[in-house]
Amino acid sequence: MQEISCEELLQHLSDYIDNNLDEELTAVAQHHLATCPNCRIVLNSTQKTITLFREQGKRTIPAERRDRLFNQLQAAFLTGRETIS
Ligand SMILES: [Zn+2]
To answer: According to a count of CB atoms within 10 Å of the terminal CB, is the N or C end of the chain lower?
Structure first.
């Protein structure tokens, strides 16, 4: 099984949520998420935001809004990890 870093996972996360990854990459992402609590937190936050938008009748989050959310999550995630190490 191919291993990916947290940074790589974050790059694929929105595609993962949208089911836009190919089978192999989905499996790799699932494996990473199964072993990495930090990335699971980021995934949950991102999914919640997407769910909120869908409940408001918007089928998808505007790309720019999602990018901004994603950057915030990524920054928080990377900052948190620096604090831990
Ligand atoms: Zn991770």
So the answer is: C
Centre of ligand 1 from the C-alpha of residue 34, in Å: 9
72 in a domain, yes or no? no
The pLDDT of residue 75 is above 60? yes
Q: Has residue 75 been placed in a domain?
A: no
Contact, 29 vs 52, CB < 8 A? no
Q: Output phi, psi for 41, to 5 deg.
A: -65, -45
Domain that holds residue 11: 6-60
Instruction: Please say if the pLDDT value at position 62 is more than 90.
Output: no
For ligand 1, the distance from its centroid to the CA atom of residue 52, given in whole angstroms, is 24
For the chain, how many structural domains are there in total? 1
